Each structure stands twice: as C-alpha cells, then as structure tokens.
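User: For my dataset I need records formatted as: sequence, then structure tokens, nothing else. Please produce one.
Assistant:
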Amino acid sequence: MSEISRGRSETHDIDEHQLRYVVDLPHPMPLVWAAVASPEGLPSWLCAADPLEPRLGGRVTLRWLNGDTVVSGRVTAWDPEYVAEYTVGPPHGRIRFHLEPGRPDAAGSTVLRFTADFHGTREAKLDMLAGWHEHLERLRDALDGRPTDWRDWTDERWRQLREGYERDEAPWPAWQP
C-alpha cells in the first residue's frame, strides 16, 4: 500500500489558497485516468459526476457522497490520459489532476500531481487539506480494489488528518534569550 504524502499549501491575498499533493500510485496511467476522469471511476473514491462532458468547456456537476456538497462548473483543461481539470463553484474552485508516467524502475506506475485552488478562510484551508488527503487515500484504496462504501463513511479519519494539518501549521513559540 502506497503512503499518501502530506499536502502542501500556499496562500495569497489572505484567502486564495492552492493545495498540492504528489502521489505515487503503483497502477498504470489508463487505470488512474479512469478513476479521476470518468463518471464510472469518481464515485469509488470521491463523488458522483453527472454530467461530466469529457472535453474542454464541457459541463460538470460533482456531488460528494460523504455529505451534501454539490458543485457545478466546466471542464477547464482536458488532455486525455494526462490532465483533467474541473473549475466548479464554492467551496471547491479549481480541481486539477495531472498524470505522469511513474519511475522507470516501477513499470506501470503513475505519478498524480493534484492541485486545488479555492477562496476561503484559514479554517477552510485546513478542512480542504484534510479532505483531499483522505480522498486521495480512498483513490489509492479504490485502485487497489477496495472502493469506498459511502454508507459506512465517518469523519474519524478526516478529523485525525485535520488535527495533524492544524498542528503542522501552528506557529513556533518565539525564542527568547
């Protein structure tokens, strides 16, 4: 089982956030592409997508299966088997999946570079860091043959991740001589 590295974030103009994750997946690119860019693959780890018009400018509506979030927008980048980008309404903004071949010594593997750009508070940023981290763990599990059964979902793992991201972002105490 591959470990999901912690996400990184940058904040600009107080409330513009970009989250970044790099995920090594021991699965071939076509399998990962189907999971991140098709209405059949997305529900196994993230959300229902209906419609998802697989083309630049196509319509997309994403309905999260672990809550009541529904966002609509457009496909803002589409390079089959490499890049799928959805720009949707709040709270999610721009969601981008960029796939690359994995390391040469790991035949059939894929590197997923995931970014999410959105406007929100510091608290929303921490929520999103934890949420996307958990969803990427679920992507890994789905690709390993263990899709999410959303009827059994709880927020326990999200809370653990959220606490970790908050702890990592806490300011260090000022050093006093």
